[in-house]
Design brief:
Layout lengths: L2 H8 L4 H16 L3 H14 L4 H18 L2 H10 L5 H11 L5 H6 L4 H8 L5 H10 L10 H9 L12 H18 L3 H13 L5
């Protein structure tokens, strides 16, 4: 496998149309308001230690209103019904995050919105904060999930999988992806979608 040539080929294929469509959706989400951003934040909280399509099903079921208004017990029930693990913990994280329900207004004032998210939103680490920011239109953060890390390892962009993604490890690996994206002349947001497709055959958010 040659990741550089594989992505070059994908950019000339029909997949590029899906990727561009998804990137336009992220930019459109970026123009929406606090409640839509909060819903997206809850989606990213739910993706941690779970599959994206499971979190997406919950987001579709609850919507902005559900994430903002259901009590912890109701949230946990809805999460559990979609076969998500840690339903009580995730419900607690979402209820706690409501303290920052005007999330767009908050982040637009921050010089480092990702660091603010990691420091202030329970259940959100470097990966989840990067995922959220990508989904609301930021383009220069890497989402270091297992698919991306495995591809990096297979293509010798990293020597080994880190035992943990501490801030130091995360930012060091992100720098490697940043250089690779520059080589391809694309953003990290676009690179992530192609890498995810190579592992899953899907172009999800």
């Amino acid at each position: 496998m040659n990741l550089y040539s594989d992505i070059k080929k994908l950019r000339k294929s029909e997949i590029s149309r899906l990727v561009r469509k998804r990137l336009r959706e992220f930019q459109k989400m970026g123009r929406k308001g606090n409640k839509e951003w909060f819903s997206e934040l809850c989606f990213c909280i739910l993706t941690a230690n779970s599959k994206a399509h499971t979190a997406l099903a919950i987001q579709h079921k609850l919507g902005c209103v559900g994430f903002l208004s259901l009590n912890k017990r109701q949230l946990a029930k809805a999460i559990k019904e979609n076969k998500h693990r840690f339903h009580n913990i995730k419900a607690g994280f979402i209820v706690d995050a409501r303290r920052s329900k005007n999330i767009k207004d908050i982040l637009k004032k921050e010089r480092d919105p990702r660091r603010w998210l990691v420091a202030n939103i329970k259940g959100v680490g470097w990966k989840e904060s990067s995922h959220f920011l990508r989904n609301v239109g930021y383009t220069d953060y890497a989402i270091l999930d297992r698919h991306v890390l495995n591809l990096m390892l297979e293509n010798k962009l990293i020597r080994k999988r880190p035992n943990s993604l501490s801030e130091k490890n995360y930012l060091a690996i992100e720098k490697k992806l940043e250089r690779f994206a520059r080589k391809l002349k694309i953003s990290q947001a676009e690179l992530d979608l192609y890498m995810w497709f190579l592992k899953t055959n899907k172009v999800l958010k």
